[in-house]
C-alpha cells in the first residue's frame, strides 16, 4: 500500500477535528463575548443563536468575516452589520422601529445619511473654531432671527453627534416660549429649566438619555408667564458656568431672536452663538442685524448654518 495514500484519511480526520474544534470554540466566543457582532445582534433580537451556528459554519468553510458570511446566507442585512459595528465602536444609534425618541432626531436614527454627514462636518468646524481643547469655551447657543428656521432641530441633532464623538454633552432647552426638546427626546416635563430658574427644582431636572451614550437633556419644563425675567436672572449664568464644568459640550436651544429678547441674553451668557438660517426663508438683513447685536454684547458669532433639511 502506498504510505502516502494510507496517511491521507488520518490527515483528513485531523483537519475535520480541527475545524470542529475551531467552530465550537468560535461559537462559544461569539455567544460569550457580549461585544462581538453575533452577540450584539442576538441581544438586540436581530439574530437567533441557531443562525449564529449556521453563520459560523459558513465562515469556517468560506473563510469570510462573520458579517459577510451572514449577508451571503441572507440571515443579516448590511444595516444589521452597521448596527452591530456602531455598537462595537460606541457610535450608538437607534433602529427604525424604535420609537423611544422622535424621528426628528435623524442623527439617532439615520447616522449614515447625507444630512448627518453635514452635521458631522459642522461639528468638526465647531471643534476647530470654538470647542478647542484646554479652554473653557464649551457652551454654545443655537440662535436664529425668526420662527420656523430649525434651531431646535439643529440643536438636538448637533448635541447627538457631539455625544457620538465621545463627548459628555448636555442639551439645554432655553426656549421657554415654545420648547421642543422635551417632545423630541420624550422626557418628563416636570421640573426642567423653568422650575430650576424659579428655585423650585435642582439639577436633578437634567435627564440622561440612556439610548444615546453621553447625552443628557435639561428640558424647558412648564412654560412660565415670565420667560425673559427668568432667563435674565443671575442663576441662569451660574447654571451655564456650573454645567460647563461638568460636561465637555453644552448646547443651548433658544427662542426666536427677532421676536424675543432672551436669545441675546442666552448668547451673551454662553459667550458664543451659531446662527441657523433656513434656505429661501430667512431674511439676510435680519441676520446681519442679529450678528451685529451679538457682537456688541460680547457674544462671538462662531458661524452660521444654512438649514435645508
TrEMBL record:
GO CC field: plasma membrane
Lineage: superkingdom: Bacteria
Keyword Transferase: yes
Keywords assigned by UniProt, alphabetized: ATP-binding, Kinase, Nucleotide-binding, Transferase
CDD domains, alphabetized: BY-kinase
NCBIfam families (UniProt xref): eps_fam, EpsG
Name of the protein described by the UniProt record: Chain length determinant protein tyrosine kinase EpsG
Amino acid at each position: 500500500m502506498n504510505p502516502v495514500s494510507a496517511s491521507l484519511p488520518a490527515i483528513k480526520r485531523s483537519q475535520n477535528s480541527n475545524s470542529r474544534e475551531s467552530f465550537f470554540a468560535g461559537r462559544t466566543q461569539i455567544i460569550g463575548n457580549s461585544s462581538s457582532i453575533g452577540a450584539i445582534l442576538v441581544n438586540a433580537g436581530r439574530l437567533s443563536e441557531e443562525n449564529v451556528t449556521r453563520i459560523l459554519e459558513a465562515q469556517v468553510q468560506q473563510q469570510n468575516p462573520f458579517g459577510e458570511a451572514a449577508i451571503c446566507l441572507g440571515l443579516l442585512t448590511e444595516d444589521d452589520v452597521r448596527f452591530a459595528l456602531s455598537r462595537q465602536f460606541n457610535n450608538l444609534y437607534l433602529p427604525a422601529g424604535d420609537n423611544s425618541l422622535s424621528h426628528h432626531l435623524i442623527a439617532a436614527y439615520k447616522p449614515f445619511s447625507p444630512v448627518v454627514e453635514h452635521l458631522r462636518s459642522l461639528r468638526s468646524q465647531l471643534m476647530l473654531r470654538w470647542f478647542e481643547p484646554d479652554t473653557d469655551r464649551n457652551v454654545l447657543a443655537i440662535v436664529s432671527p425668526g420662527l420656523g428656521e430649525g434651531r431646535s432641530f439643529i440643536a438636538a441633532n448637533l448635541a447627538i453627534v457631539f455625544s457620538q464623538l465621545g463627548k459628555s454633552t448636555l442639551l439645554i432647552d432655553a426656549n421657554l416660549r415654545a420648547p421642543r426638546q422635551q417632545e423630541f427626546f420624550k422626557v418628563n416635563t416636570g421640573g426642567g429649566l423653568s422650575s430650576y430658574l424659579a428655585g423650585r427644582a435642582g439639577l436633578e431636572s437634567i435627564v440622561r438619555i440612556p439610548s444615546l451614550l453621553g447625552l443628557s437633556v435639561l428640558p424647558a419644563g412648564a412654560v412660565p408667564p415670565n420667560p425673559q425675567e427668568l432667563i435674565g436672572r443671575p442663576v441662569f449664568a451660574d447654571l451655564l458656568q456650573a454645567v460647563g464644568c461638568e460636561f465637555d459640550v453644552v448646547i443651548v436651544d433658544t427662542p426666536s431672536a427677532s421676536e424675543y429678547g432672551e436669545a441675546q441674553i442666552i448668547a451673551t451668557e454662553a459667550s458664543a452663538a451659531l446662527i441657523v438660517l433656513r434656505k429661501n426663508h430667512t431674511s439676510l438683513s435680519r441676520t446681519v442685524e442679529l450678528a451685529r447685536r451679538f457682537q456688541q454684547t460680547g457674544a462671538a458669532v462662531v458661524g452660521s448654518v444654512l438649514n435645508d433639511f
